[in-house]
């Protein structure tokens, strides 16, 4: 939505006493149309004004009128054009007209492709609908299913993801949609691209046929048109930018740079250091890349301290962590968000200056939605696409690169886990004509990152599968170590009260034979078995003699 001063579209003098005689309308009422110079104008009421929505956008002007008439609508507009309010306003207004209450149950169902987009829509609904008494619920994965089941039957407006909704339809006995009045499919093309087409078909089959359906998307694909034919009845097609020359906003400045595979991390770090006072979103192809670069504990770029906060958003995170990251990005004025394509659809991060695509998007629709995170509603923005030489033949200026090669090599040398994680990171793309894996100079990349092996011997260790297991310490080895250290074992001697030593049994065998000259330590390590055997034999002989003498003396004492 656009923000600014309220337009003076209807002079109060011309309204005169006619408006005073009319019944005062509710504060949030949006169905307020006046004629000014032959044009039909939609005015926002104080409820929207308090939420800083002051002037309707083109998609809202063309869509809300059809929706309030009860018609099905297929709406398409560029990213950042205000599609969220284009369906939230009709939802609230239609339920208000019918005086919907908690007893009536579910009145409107809003389906979003991702949890983040559903959460964002829910937050916008809370702001613009705070003067209403409708109950609204956010039904997404990662939350307590039992708690949702207890409250879902009293909810008037549900904002959800397809998978979670289908789970409630199959497991929650109290959930039913027989009285549903309005169905909204937000980012319908993304819902289908993510493989939810079977889920959507199953959901639509369980909904009443007399409902009103609103379908919105930034791009119109064949699958979206097929879904419209199955779900919509005589729809009104609203394509705001149908005649536009480009699918991206006019205020968006788009650039691309060609960079070798082994220089991409250097380029990314240099870019961040050059935009410390900006808000940047960096898109990666997979979760492993985001975790490798951005997560505080293992992230290599976080360890390099680029000078601004680095946040991560990907599908492997827990739901509460994803919500926390989303709110942090909104609050911060300058930050870097490393994300996968879950952040590419519908999310409205304010004041994003740059969108950098570290990995090339798989198709043009993905590119449109990625760059759509900046240049929102007439605001400026810049996008940078990083390409490999095999994807576009060009050169990058090496003078603008800040090399972090040695620091990365040091980190990987010290932490084997990070080294293995870096080796597992891979990018798989669908279009093999463009993303040709055989064109990647992997050998050159490996040599580039492993050239420090002379300085860091730990890098020369073999793979974890072929590493030697730690040898088990045996008692023999422990005894051998003790002998080398020449430890003297303490002996326990017991005395009587008169001071006589008590003879222990079996008696301790003492070394009775001194070492001969030939048995002196010659400086070599280990045990000479022959010498030890001879010495033990002599000690046994001496010990036997002493023991024999003791026994003879005992016999003589007995006779006396």
UniProtKB/TrEMBL annotation:
Stretches with biased composition (Basic residues): 11-24
Chain intervals for the UniProt region annotation (Disordered): 1-27, 514-533
Lineage of the species this protein comes from: Eukaryota, Metazoa, Chordata, Craniata, Vertebrata
All copies of domain Helicase ATP-binding, residue ranges: 64-238
Keyword Secreted attached: no
Record comment regarding domains: The Q motif is unique to and characteristic of the DEAD box family of RNA helicases and controls ATP binding and hydrolysis.
Protein name (record): ATP-dependent RNA helicase
Family that this chain belongs to: Belongs to the DEAD box helicase family.
Pfam families, sorted: DEAD, Helicase_C
């Amino acid at each position: 939505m656009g923000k600014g001063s309220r337009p003076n579209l209807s002079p109060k003098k011309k309204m005169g006493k006619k408006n005073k005689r009319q019944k005062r309308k509710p504060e949030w009422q949006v169905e307020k149309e006046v004629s000014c110079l032959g044009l039909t104008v939609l005015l926002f009421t104080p409820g929207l004004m308090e939420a800083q929505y002051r002037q309707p956008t083109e998609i809202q002007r063309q869509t809300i009128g059809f929706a309030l008439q009860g018609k099905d609508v297929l709406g398409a507009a560029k990213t950042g054009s205000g599609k969220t309010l284009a369906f939230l306003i009709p939802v609230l207004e239609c339920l208000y007209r019918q005086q919907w209450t908690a007893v009536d149950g579910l009145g409107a169902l809003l389906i979003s492709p991702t949890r983040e987009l559903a959460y964002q829509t829910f937050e916008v609904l809370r702001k613009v609908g705070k003067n209403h008494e409708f109950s609204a619920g956010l039904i997404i994965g990662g939350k307590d299913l039992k708690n949702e089941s207890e409250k879902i039957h009293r909810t008037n407006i549900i904002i959800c993801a397809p998978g979670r909704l289908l789970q409630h339809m199959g497991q929650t006995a109290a959930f039913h949609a027989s009285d549903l009045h309005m169905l909204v499919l937000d980012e319908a093309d993304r819902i289908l691209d993510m493989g939810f087409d079977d889920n959507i078909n199953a959901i639509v089959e369980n909904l009443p046929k007399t409902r009103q359906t609103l379908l919105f998307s930034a791009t119109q694909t064949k699958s979206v048109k097929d879904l419209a034919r199955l779900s919509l009845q005589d729809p009104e097609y609203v394509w705001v930018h149908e005649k536009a020359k480009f699918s991206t906003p006019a205020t968006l400045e788009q650039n691309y740079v060609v960079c070798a595979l082994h220089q991409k991390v250097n380029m990314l770090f240099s870019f961040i250091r050059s935009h410390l006072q900006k808000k940047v979103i960096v898109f990666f192809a997979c979760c492993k890349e985001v975790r490798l670069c951005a997560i505080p504990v293992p992230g290599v770029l976080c360890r390099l301290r680029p000078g601004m906060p680095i946040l991560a958003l990907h599908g492997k995170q827990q739901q509460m962590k994803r919500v926390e990251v989303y709110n942090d990005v909104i609050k911060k004025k300058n930050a870097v968000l490393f994300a996968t394509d879950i952040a590419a659809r519908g999310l409205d991060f304010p004041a994003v200056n740059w969108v950098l695509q570290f990995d090339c998007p798989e198709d043009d629709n993905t590119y449109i939605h990625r760059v759509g995170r900046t240049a929102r509603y007439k605001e400026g923005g810049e996008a940078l696409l990083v390409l490999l030489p095999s994807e576009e033949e060009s050169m990058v200026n090496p003078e603008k690169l800040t090399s972090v090669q040695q620091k990365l090599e040091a980190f990987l040398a010290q932490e084997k886990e990070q080294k293995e994680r870096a080796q597992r990171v891979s990018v798989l793309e669908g279009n093999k004509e463009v993303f040709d894996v055989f064109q990647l100079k992997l050998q050159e990349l490996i040599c580039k990152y492993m050239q420090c092996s002379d300085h860091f011997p730990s890098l020369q260790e073999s793979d974890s599968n072929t590493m030697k297991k730690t040898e088990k310490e045996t008692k023999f080895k422990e005894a051998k170590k003790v002998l080398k250290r020449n430890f003297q074992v303490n002996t326990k001697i017991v005395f009587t009260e008169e001071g006589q030593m008590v003879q222990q049994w079996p008696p301790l065998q003492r070394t009775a034979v001194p070492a001969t000259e030939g048995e002196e330590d010659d400086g070599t390590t280990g045990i000479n078995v022959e010498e030890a055997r001879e010495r033990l034999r002599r000690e046994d002989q001496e010990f036997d003699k002493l023991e024999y003498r003791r026994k003879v003396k005992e016999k003589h004492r007995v006779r006396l």
